Each structure stands twice: as structure tokens, then as C-alpha cells.
């Protein structure tokens, strides 16, 4: 099966680097399904889920926004933060969710509210991606996502 190179990096570390078959991500214009030899592309990434298909396996990651570039059969994701599903500490994400929910429901100024909503969104995606990995659902098929919201 044809492949392309995916590299996911943050300012802190290289999260992932491998030859893969399919990448599903959420760009600023909506869901992107990237296959080998995709046309050149540069887009901002929405916070959410990355799904990687490689041979018969799927890898899930939570990404907190960033940039995605496709060039010469290579995709580079410069992520604000990114964790593979198995790296996610669900308890930490649940705590972050509770903190953010409290903040969102309190009287905040516009900027603080936007920050609290972003933190809430990050925590929800981390929980969703971590649970997905732990679930026993079939690994053999990528299911299209209806929405990038958890
Ligand atoms: P928290 O309030 O728990 O720190 P946060 O959303 O503010 O969450 P970020 O600023 O997005 O955290 O990320 C800071 C660093 O911590 C990044 O390296 C990120 O990958 C990591 N990180 C954040 N939450 C988790 C988690 N639940 N499990 C594992 N790593 C996490």
C-alpha cells in the first residue's frame, strides 16, 4: 500500500515520525483526509483528534491546534501540544475539565472566557481520544467523524 511520511512535532518534542497510509485531521476549513501524493497544502489545525492509519492499525492523537503542511509526499504537523492516546492521563484531563467548566460558568471577561472554553475543549478531546484507545472497538476501519466536537 502506498505511504507518505508523517512528522508530528511540538516545541517540546517529536511526537511521531513514520510512513503511514492515511491521515485524518481537522483543518481550519473542516475535515481533511490525506492520502499519499496529496497536493501541496498549508492550513491551521483545529484542536481535536488526529487519526493515523498505518497498515492494519489506527493510531489516535489529541492535538491542541497548530499548523499542517503537505509537501512532496510528506506531512508535517507543528502542534501546540499533542499526545498519543496512550500517553494521555485521563485523570489529569478530567481535573482540567472540571476546572474549566467551573471557570466557564463563572462571571468572566471575554478573554478569560475564551481561554477557559479552549481549556475545556482540550480536556474534552483528551478524554475522548484516551477513551477511544482504551475501548475495544474494531481497529480495522476508520469511521468518518460527524463532527470535530467530542
Ligand atoms: P492542564 O491544566 O492539565 O495542564 P492544559 O490543557 O493546560 O492541561 P496544555 O497547556 O495543553 O495543558 O499542555 C501542557 C503540556 O502538558 C503539553 O506537553 C501537553 O502535551 C501535556 N498534557 C496536558 N494535559 C495532558 C494529559 N491529560 N495527559 C498527558 N499530557 C498532557
Q: Write down the overall mean pLDDT.
A: 90
Tell me the overall shape.
globular
Low-confidence runs: 136-147
Largest sheet: 8 strands, mixed
Strand content: 35-45%
Whole-number tally of structural domains: 2
**Amino-to-carboxy terminus distance:** 31 Å
CATH topology term of the largest domain? ATP Synthase, domain 1
Question: In total, how many beta strands?
Answer: 8
Based on the coordinates given, report the CATH architecture of the largest domain.
Answer: Sandwich
Q: How many helices does DSSP assign? A: 2
In short:
With 150 residues, this protein is an alpha+beta fold. The protein has two helices and eight strands.
Characterization of the model:
The chain is of the alpha+beta class. The chain has 2 domains: 4-86, F0F1 ATP synthase delta/epsilon subunit, N-terminal (ATP Synthase, domain 1, Sandwich); 88-132, ATP synthase delta/epsilon subunit, C-terminal domain (Single alpha-helices involved in coiled-coils or other helix-helix interfaces, Up-down Bundle). Helix content is 27%, strand content 41%. It contains 2 helices and 8 strands, in the order ββββββββαα. The chain has helices at 90-104, 110-134; strands at residues 4-9, 14-20, 22-27, 30-34, 41-54, 57-71, 74-79, 82-84. Strands 1, 2, 3, 4, 5, 6, 7 and 8 form an 8-stranded mixed beta sheet that branches. A hairpin with a 2-residue loop joins strand 6 (57-71) and strand 7. The protein is globular, with a radius of gyration of 16 Å. The model is unreliable at 136-147 (pLDDT under 50). Adenosine-5'-triphosphate binds at residues 12, 64, 81, 83, 87-89, 92-93, 96, 119, 122, 126. Residues 12, 64, 81, 83, 87-89, 92-93, 96, 119, 122, 126 line the site of adenosine-5'-triphosphate.
Amino acid at each position: 500500500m502506498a505511504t507518505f511520511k508523517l512528522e508530528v512535532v511540538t516545541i517540546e518534542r517529536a511526537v511521531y515520525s513514520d510512513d503511514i497510509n492515511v491521515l485524518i485531521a481537522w483543518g481550519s476549513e473542516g475535515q481533511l483526509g490525506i492520502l499519499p501524493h496529496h497536493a501541496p497544502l498549508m492550513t491551521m489545525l483545529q484542536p481535536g483528534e488526529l487519526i493515523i492509519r498505518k497498515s492494519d492499525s489506527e493510531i489516535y492523537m489529541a492535538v491542541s491546534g497548530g499548523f499542517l503542511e503537505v509537501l512532496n509526499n510528506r506531512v508535517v504537523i507543528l502542534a501546540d501540544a499533542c499526545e498519543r492516546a496512550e500517553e494521555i492521563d485521563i485523570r489529569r484531563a478530567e481535573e482540567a475539565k472540571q476546572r474549566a467548566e467551573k471557570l466557564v460558568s463563572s462571571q468572566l471577561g471575554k478573554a478569560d472566557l475564551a481561554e477557559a472554553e479552549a481549556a475545556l475543549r482540550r480536556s474534552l478531546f483528551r478524554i475522548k481520544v484516551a477513551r477511544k484507545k482504551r475501548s475495544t472497538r474494531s481497529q480495522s476501519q476508520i469511521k468518518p467523524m460527524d463532527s470535530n466536537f467530542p
